[in-house]
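Protein 1 of 2
SEQ + STRUCT:
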Amino acid sequence: MFSIKIYLLFKLRLKNLAKLSIIIPFGTSKERPYIKERVIEKAQHYVSNESVEYIFVEGFSSIEHPELKILIENQGHRYIKDEIQQASKVFSTGQCRNLGVINAKSDVVMSLDVDCVISEKNLENILELISIKEIDKNPNAFLVLPCVFLNELGTEILQNRKLSLWDNIIKQDLLFDKKFIKFLTPASSTIVMNRFKFLELGGNDKEFIGHGYEDFDLMMRILKNCATFEALPNNLDFDYRNWNFNDFKGFRALFSIVGNEAAVYGIYLYHLWHIEPNQNGYFNNRDSNHKKFFKNLSKKNHFIESLQENSVKNKKNLALFQENSTSHRILNQISVFIGECIFKLEGDFFDYYENEPKLNKKAFLIFLKNNEISNIILFNPYDNELRLKNLSILQRAKFPI
């Protein structure tokens, strides 16, 4: 409930254009020339309008194609380049998604991998469900899309037919024929969700490098923060390494439950077949990412710092709270709109003489200057002697509180 109140309090600060922002991450290379082709196809086929804005986010590309930016923007879409990735020479789908959501102009966001396509009919259904579920108003509402992975034949046929017809072809194939389908994932990394909630939860954890598990990690944080379940699977930290299971066991069983909602509406993503070379070491960290995910699963509350709005990305606040406390977690929601928070205790800036606290004013003001603090956040100052002394110093220094 607190999350909803904070969201409503700051909602007027957001400038909304479209109903949904769709983020398309990509990175081009010699090993995967089809990525460029699929970016071009999406830029030319998709239409950014009053309902949907498409944001193409380019991460690390070992071979850059400047013409893609021109094409994307000429088609009326938005293009963003992650220069940090380009400098580090490491591609991260998760960080591309984060950058896209930070720059999105609507209250609802979803990512769409460059290898995935969605039909106009299913997109219309998603837009209707955004209104029905009030995802733009309710930070805890979301929709997880299942994904059909096509084989080479299915991909070839899909690219030569209208997607509206393909929706029923795929349902027929799922139920009976199995000619075009490689496998089905009941829950994918494409989650239609409230933008504020994505930022509050910290988006995709930057600790996951390269391919794998950053989407599972985000999914688990969404479920723990936004949903309740009558029963959880046995051995939540069990991984079948596939989606073919009959018992309610492992984290994928939990993910399948939320993915079934979109499936009931007949909404699926289609993943195009492609070769999978290990471009630029993209798969090198899959095992280490797997271990990080299971380590996070074992935590009662896996918590990461929120992402911030672009308008406050360079602002820093000194929060006189205990780090990793309940107050820290509450402040994490607000920091989306006020900027990054650095946590210290009131007593950290006091020296003690004969058990009497005395503020080290010089050290305090130097800390504020060196850390480029623009604002200070503290509890009720009249409840605590140290806090009250801090307040008087700050007031005399005319520092924002």
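Protein 2 of 2
SEQ + STRUCT:
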Amino acid sequence: MANLLTFLLVNFLGFGLVFQSVRSEYGDLAGNWLVDYGQAELRLLSNEALEPLVRIDGVQPRNGDGSDLYFVIRTIDTVRAEANHIIQFQEFAANGSWQGAVTVQGKRFGYSQLIVELHSQLAPTNIETSSQELPIAVLRDRVVDERITTYVSAALALLMFLNLGTVLDLQRLQGIICRPIGPMVGIASRFVMMPALAFGLGRALWSSSSANEQSLQLALFYTALAPSGGLANVCAVFLKGNVNLSVATTTINSLLALAFLPLWIMVMARYVYDDDQLMVPFGQLSGGTVALVVCLALGMILRLCVPKTTRFIFRFLKPLSVVLSLCLVGLTVGLNWFVFAEFSWQVLVAALCLPIAGYMATYLLSKLLCRSPTDALTLAIETSVLNMTMPIVLLQSSRLEQPQMDLVLVVPIASSLLSLLLVVVLYVVRRCFGWNVRQDDDGFDHKRLLAEHDETVYQRP
């Protein structure tokens, strides 16, 4: 036993000596040399090259004349920015100092650092790294005005709501409002369960306290908190859901968001993102909600006053919905295509788990409250189809600096796209197995809607 302990001790000490021989402590080769970059941060465009001045002082070789020493100035993340400048010891002044310009080439938006390393030709594995580093922020060179995306997306969404307003039934809407169990499930799912799921997912996937991971947590939190838009209502049409309940829940949640968003940001978002200046864009949110209600009202007025127009909409409701949805998704993705370069396994897990967990939790809650299969399906779709535009607006109001804003946009865009993809998969499965049928009177059926509309027009004096 004693021999075994002696053997292990000798090997452990030998390993320590080997490890020490391949990694020098700072100051062993040339004393406590210092680096000065002349600025706190370097900001440049992704296609731009800058030459910051770098100064190295206090270089005093410990062994020999220092002819074997050389410095390397490089970037840590060469995908974002690249620099590779080599300085031989012979270029240093007699007092052990050097100053010169170093070329830094921006490549892709994001963050990197410029560092200085000391190498020895006699011991290539001995590398000393300065504790001083220069943060680098690389910005996109082509930036589309964010107002273009916001306004055009809002216009497409309002056309979608105008389209859906023509198929609403006032009697069924009145029943939903008088017995608001369905909308209450939608409210609880959107403003209680989904934020809680996003908070837990964010903490599990991005546990670091770094600014980048905090921003990703905030983006996921806003994605879960934002009420679903017209895309969820369109999905309810295709899945034979209760369109009246879907639109009513969307409208109610959009109105309540004006109260719940500030409350959640005040209570929980500060734990996600360490910033006391998080803001809620009340103007944009309230304006969008008012426009939503107006478009739905106009659609209902068209149904009552212009029956020929509404018959056309009834017949082509699905194609029109698909075209508007594709335009909305295509515009947002097309203008923000660059975010997919930041796609990671954490983003994939978050974008898949959030809508799946939201769907299952909402469906279970609906069944526990004795909702019909159609209503349970509708509310689950309403919760799981994630909004793409509102989280972007909320993040923009959070005053995230570039390129941090560009780095976190991948979360709401990927989450929304994958939630739509999951609905498409559900629709295909239901169609393949013959399950995509109208299950009760509240289920959407455009043929029955056309027949009811023609009968109403025929009976009109």
